[in-house]
Amino acid sequence: MGTALTDLAVRKLSPPDKGQTFHHDASHPNFGVCVSHGGTKSFFVFATVNGRRKRITLGRYPTISLSQARAKGQTPEQKVIFKYKGLNLAELEMRNDSTVHYREIRFNMIKMRALDLLFSNIARTGQYSNEVWLYGTTTKRFGRWRRG
Asked: pTM surpassing 0.85?
């Protein structure tokens, strides 16, 4: 686990005698600051690219601030966009808490586009009531149910 990265903490980081040191943020383990022996401080994020874990440099401190680096560190792999024929149907957004699980997962769907796509590609096979229409193989499942 790392330490809590703040503007003051990043400013106070001292360079190592040789090589580089990596300081990971306690609240975002894939995000941190690399300090080189020359005193250069660079923000980085770890991401999985083509199945391999890579360190991606986000920019140098103080050219970009800690808050800008955090915003930049929200990698594209954390957002999945569902498209059909060039139209966005939905987005799945995941916010990392650790390398093992996600702190927050959001799913946003443009309902009318998604429903239009589904209804245009799946045949209507029955009607359960005035409010409920059946599509695809749902008639098999609804056949067991009795209306009350």
From this structure: no
